[in-house]
Design a protein that fits this description.
Helices cover 29% and strands 28% of the residues. The chain is α+β, with helices and mostly antiparallel strands. The strands form 2 sheets. The protein has an 8-stranded mixed sheet with strand order 9-8-7-14-13-10-11-12. A 6-stranded antiparallel sheet has the order 2-1-6-5-3-4. α5 packs across α7. The longest helix has 20 residues.
């Protein structure tokens, strides 16, 4: 059967038409936010970095005491779902909830159209006192992300693409939907997950590619003052890959965006990395 207009949904073993999925109102994911999710890029018939995404999903599930493995094989569910999608590119979202008390977890797979960040780059704002440094739950990709959602909505109302979240101690940790990098004296710097950052899959790819390119990447505390002196600032996430920043409001303007040397280098290396990934799964 071919996919109907819009994106279908996989719920607990069944493929359903768009909008037809249903989760019990007693599900603890719905009631209490006891659910984890992960988002993969599906493009050119390839689910990029699937192993890494599923490993992070498992890590998050175990952190929230969601039984693992779930009753439905996640990899098989993704394969079934992508056969239904056919050649359409999309971002795939896997959500695993703790389920109804005394019952079993629920697994949902859905999709949405890919939204490309604009070039030559994006404007971001700072959101102060938005993260708790050292809190292990800050690094779990759970559905309890109200702080991130509200911060990004406020940023967008102000005409920005993203908000960079700072800890209660003042350092910059991550974006609401992205990791953050700064080029400082030629080195690529990103905050450690111990400060409350999510260990983004593309973040890991960029760190590896930067090391291979001789950029001497460092994982260390990143201050607002560092952003003010950075020669380039970059964001990363699954669908946007490498997202250049042209301005941090009230901190730094005039950044080179997509024309920055490090941005151009990392974009080229990510493209080559993805080509190798596709070839390895052909």
């Amino acid at each position: 059967m071919s996919a109907p207009p819009g994106f279908p949904v996989f719920v607990d073993g069944a493929l359903l038409p768009p909008g037809a999925g249903a989760i019990s109102t007693d599900d603890q994911g719905f009631q209490l936010g006891l659910a984890v999710f992960d988002t993969l890029l599906y493009e050119d018939g390839c689910r990029y970095f699937e192993d890494e995404h599923l490993a992070r999903l498992e890590q998050g599930a175990r952190a929230l005491a969601i039984p693992w493995p779930p009753p439905w094989d996640v990899r098989a569910a993704l394969a079934l779902y992508c056969r239904e999608l056919g050649p359409r590119a999309a971002t795939l979202r896997i959500t695993l909830t703790r389920g109804v008390p005394g019952g079993r977890p629920s697994l949902v797979v859905g999709a949405r159209a890919i939204v490309r960040p604009p070039d030559p780059g994006v404007v971001v704002v700072l959101e102060r006192d938005a993260k708790r440094a050292g809190d292990a739950l800050e690094s779990v990709k759970s559905t309890s992300r109200v702080r991130n959602v509200l911060a990004r909505e406020a940023a967008q109302r102000a005409g920005a693409f993203e908000a960079l979240l700072c800890t209660d101690e003042g350092d910059v940790v991550e974006g609401t939907i992205s990791n953050v990098f700064a080029v400082l004296a030629g080195a690529l710097v990103t905050p450690p997950v111990e400060r409350g950052a999510l260990a983004g899959i593309m973040r890991g790819v960029l760190l590896a590619e930067a090391a291979a390119a001789g950029l001497a990447p460092r994982v260390e505390r990143l201050e607002v003052a560092d952003l003010a002196r950075a020669s380039e600032i970059l964001l990363s996430n699954t669908s946007g890959r490498v997202i250049p920043v042209v301005e941090v409001r009230a901190v730094r303007s005039g950044l080179p965006g997509a024309q920055g040397a490090v941005c151009r280098l990392l974009r080229a290396r990510v493209a080559a990395c993805e080509a190798r990934y596709r070839a390895g799964r052909a």
